[in-house]
Write the structure tokens for this entry.
Amino acid sequence: MLRIFKRLNSTLSQHNIIDASRANLISSISDYGFTVGETRVRGPCFIANQTTLLWDVPQFGVGGPKMDVDPVKEGEYNNPESPFHGWSLEMFALLEAMEPKPEMLVIGTGSYSAPLPPGFKEYFTKMGIQVESTTSRKAGATYNDW
């Protein structure tokens, strides 16, 4: 899987959902998504190395849809009160292949700040990436200032 991501890393710009000529700054944040440059993005996105990608992560935690069945599988974080409910380290596999690696990862967690699940911070530290989990508005401001 990592080999596949390494090949993809060199062509990430092909999957960029934002016009490369426009700034990749977050200009607004709503309950439904972001405006990056002049493009509205509904739902989670991953912005790194001047590339904006849609990010398919579970949204079953606080503020997410109520589920009749528990979507959590083995190896996934299981706390229904957390916006990270249903997440695993596989959600960040793209970071392992990125060159250059980002110095910092800022994760927006919606309207309320939530701590990272156990083991997540150690995972990023091993890759040399600082990580911060905060509200989505603060995450957007931090990204723009970085």
Observations:
- The radius of gyration is 15 Å.
- Confidence is low (pLDDT under 50) at residues 1-10.
